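writing this on my phone so excuse typos. first protein, seq and then structure
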Amino acid sequence: MLDSLFLSFREGLEAALIIGIILATLSQLNRKHLAKVVGFGTIAGVIGSLILGWGLFTFAQSISHEAEEIMEAVMRIVAAGLIAYFILWLHRNQQVAGKIKGQTEKSSTSKIGLFLLAFLSVIREGMELMVFNMTKISESAGTVALGSIIGIVAAALVAYVIFKTTIKLNLSLIFKALGLILVFLGGEMFAEGIVELLETHSEAMEILFLAVFIVPALFILLKDDVARFTKKAA
């Protein structure tokens, strides 16, 4: 349940922070009347995620046990790939808040553009969470669902506190901290998925694949920070 809780917290927090930045930017642009459009986009994204999640879980329940094991292994590798993509995205977009504000400003004159920005932001996180949860299809559905619900509610509360207080938001720092935890979760998913597909239970092989994912991921995530620290120390 803890894995599902953390992953849903990360996905939920990212979606909530993005929507919060969009709304804050609209307020700064004196376009508060467009907040409803963002709200509709957010709701549509949530509904779309639930429909896709329900459809995939229904399909997973209809397949054989052997096919379920293969699907779970494949989903672990896909989930690890999504984490790797997030790390690359974070590395290329160090100023996360600025990028989101720029997208909002470009879309602020179009209701359709704002709707799509909110919708795609939410459904993207929802689909990622769906993939992560599909790595747990052999576990109790109630446990996975409970962890996801707690994580999403906690994410919404944290985002609300951040935007309703005087806390200075540093999205890059928040996402980097979450990224560090994700690196190790992603490594575990990648190693378990590969070992499962190879039908081997060698601990040495699992450690090898764990290192194959974690070492380059940490290098990409932290190399700029290490370079800045080294430069300052010199």
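second protein below, same order as before
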Amino acid sequence: MSQKTALVLGATGMVGMELVKLISAKKYYQTINLLTRRPINLSDQTINQQVIDFEQLEKYADLFQVQDVYICLGTTIKAAKTKEAFRKVDYEYVVEAAKLAKRGNIEKLLLITAAGADPKSRVFYSRVKGEVEETLKSMKLHSLHIFKPSLLLGDRKEFRLGEAVMGKASGILTKIMIGPLRPYRPIHAATVAAAMFKSAQTDQLGMHVYPSKEIERMGSS
């Protein structure tokens, strides 16, 4: 086991859960701090789990004094109920976490957004994802890794009709979504988690953006 430490935000989400399972099994980190909205049943002694109110994220600034910060936060407008509540989770909490990470002088920040993220998009979801990317890019972190997966496949606590339908059709879609459509092929959450962990083990400085095709390559190798 290395002497490195990590922090994961969004560990109750689909990618976050896969990520925690992976880095816990790999024994790469001496300590893994988790900030979650609800408790997770875990038995790993290296994990320090804190159930928090994300409105009070500043109170946990000391937990950001790690080498790697993984941000897997995200919701849907349906779950959030309003656009304002969605933006609070997918933009405000993410930016606040990035500020605390920078203050903690972290080595790497690894963030999940989405394929199609664009600050100029007419689609609210894609616009917010693009805005958070632009904000974090402007912060000039030592090493920023942005992962832009397409529709995620895997076990999710909340039911999402679109993902359920796409999950059943994923085999067919993988074959027919080629060329310009390839970036939008469904991708497994475990593949995204594996790609994030692989990036965390590199010494790359600066900003790195991974489209779904690259995530698939990294996470499957």
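The first strand starts at residue 5 and ends at 9. thats all i got for now
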